[in-house]
Amino acid sequence: xxxxxxxxxxxxxxxxxxxxxxxxxxxxxxxxxxxxxxxxxxxxxxxxxxxxxxxxxxxxxxxxxxxxxxxxxxxxxxxxxxxxxxxxxxxxxxxxxxxxxxxxxxxxxxxxxxxxxxxxxxxxxxxxxxxxxxxxxxxxxxxxxxxxxxxxxxxxxxxxxxxxxxxxxxxxxxxxxxxxxxxxxxxxxxxxxxxxxxxxxxxxxxxxxxxxxxxxxxxxxxxxxxxxxxxxxxxxxxxxxxxxxxxxxxxxxxxxxxxxxxxxxxxxxxxxxxxxxxxxxxxxxxxxxxxxxxxxxxxxxxxxxxxxxxxxxxxxxxxxxxxxxxxxxxxxxxxxxxxxxxxxxxxxxxxxxxxxxxxxxxxxxxxxxxxxxxxxxxxxxxx
Length: 383
Known about the structure:
Layout: E1 7-9, H1 19-27, E2 32-36, E3 39-42, E4 47-53, E5 56-64, E6 72-74, E7 80-86, E8 92-100, E9 106-115, E10 124-127, E11 132-134, E12 140-144, H2 150-159, E13 161-164, E14 170-176, E15 182-188, E16 197-202, E17 219-225, E18 229-234, E19 239-244, E20 247-253, E21 268-271, E22 274-282, E23 293-301, E24 308-311, E25 329-331, H3 333-342, E26 348-352, H4 373-377
Parallel strand pairs: 3-9, 11-17, 18-26, 24-25
Antiparallel strand pairs: 1-9, 2-4, 4-7, 5-8, 6-7, 8-9, 10-12, 12-15, 13-16, 14-15, 16-17, 18-19, 19-20, 21-26, 22-23, 23-24
């Protein structure tokens, strides 16, 4: 039910006792305005609605607790305004609505309400980092702590806005993260153009992801695309080539994964996820028994399953000659040191060769580029 709210408007004083005077008084009465939701600590996740009875809405202004404007749309007959987004959890809103009756009487209504905090939240982990400069293969990636039901995915996807400085064409796609969590990525149709400025807005607060959980905050980030760089790893020739603007600028002899078994390297296109410095690598964590357990320098992650590019001085005899690693791409410490310094997170690595263990599944790192544009678009909940 729409609860009428106190309003201030123009009206006659109604003096006089004949029927005509009474009719004039009724005609001069401002429209009645109601806002839903209303009250204190109300349930979040509902659209904000402003309704006029006995007249039309001429303007509606809604602001949140931070002073930000909440946009919305008027119905065709100008009697109902509905917000574009739902009321968020743990939020406050102020509403000012102006009305006019058919006889021209103007009115103004002020209202406010607050929403309760979400009892059970769904949180988001986000790539890439804010205000970073990344490589041309970097997708936008959101991993959700709890499942996003199929009935909620279209609404979530509609809320996500990607704005670029050059109108880059791209699409969202749903997949499973490597740990089994729901994830949505946005990738361009082709690799990003260098220098592209990207802004991502995710006004998710108030959107339910299941019967029990909802998002309880908004998210936003900005990042920039760096130079046009692609790394090409040729397992047959045992070399890594860094290309800039289509031309090779550096060639490094490497040793890839051992052919013929589980120690082979992944093929296809992967994207540099992170630069992790010196880390402990233990073969037992990736299902290779007790093959190794050592500290490894200049570690650059390509998949969540454990494929890295890194310094591998213990394999020095094989660089450029044979593939003898347990799946990673190894190089000398000197080469790894300078390569680590120069390469950007988000740079695509295109790995080829006769004996690799296939293409990483979607979700194992950023394997987005191993699908055609048409295949990728079908992952959208809006396709």
